[in-house]
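Last lecture ended with a question: if I hand you only a sequence, what can you say about the shape of the protein? Today we answer it with a concrete record. The protein is Transcription initiation factor TFIID subunit 12. Below, first the input exactly as provided, then the predicted structure, then a couple of comments.
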Amino acid sequence: NGIILAQTDEFYVVNPGCQHKTHQSGQAKDDILTRPRLQDLVREVDPTEQLDEEVEELLLQLADDFVESTVGAACLLAKHRKASTVEVKDVQLHLERNWNMWIPGFGTDELRPYKRATITEAHKQRLALIRKTLKKY
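The predicted structure:
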């Protein structure tokens, strides 16, 4: 549970180890994704595409929710490390573990090996049968 510290036109919600500035209306002071920027992104994909207002609103809300949950999880990870600041590695860990996302160029310089799935014996037998069948024709 967060602590709310009142101020004049905005308030701070203090999550475990983090501060997040919001307006009294509950809207973020600086939206991550604005409606014009969303429309620009859509035009980059398809210049003729037009989003409905409800779809735009849903996508904007999704982006805000994603960022909010990521920041909250990164705060918890920083608190777990007994740190007072969130570092890139906190965000990276959350994105890797929960979203299977890697952000190239941030944090580690290690090369990530491609994880090749192990092939079971049953799969090898099926492949052999397919190859044998294909050779007949």
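Comments.
1. Confidence is low (pLDDT under 50) at residues 1-17, 19-28.
2. The beta strands are 3-6, 10-15, 18-23.
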